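User: Fold this; tokens only.

Assistant: Input:
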Amino acid sequence: MLLALPLLAAMASAEDRALRSLLDRQQITEVLHRYGQTFDAKDADGFASLFTEDAHWKIHRRGTERPQFENTSRAELKDFVADRFSTVLAGRQTQHYVTGTVFLELTEDFARTRSTVLVVHRILETGALVPVNAPVYMDEFVKTEAGWKISRHTAN
């Protein structure tokens, strides 16, 4: 019986790690969904809250090396999206469909994912739906006291 205790402890520990991994994956996936939902709601504060203070966010046109847009802090990103919401996107309702998320790396406090996304704009004046982009999101996450946050986001 005493010999079985270390084995039982190891099994419980493995189960705990597996459960923690599943919970982390679910929480990270939720952050990715909130990324689209807060952007679509034109909620600059909610969108920015998904990122670390020193987050690096960049958007590339497919096949280009230099980013079309780049922000290197949460505050800068918040100001950028708030401006976009009130100017370029003022007459449009964006719709982000985040799907096909694959975990490339997952530890207790870091994760790296790749997601397929479809971005559609509804032109408010006409109601027309326009497919705009189908980027691949590469994201890095860190676990903070407030939960999982995006530390690096690249869309190609």
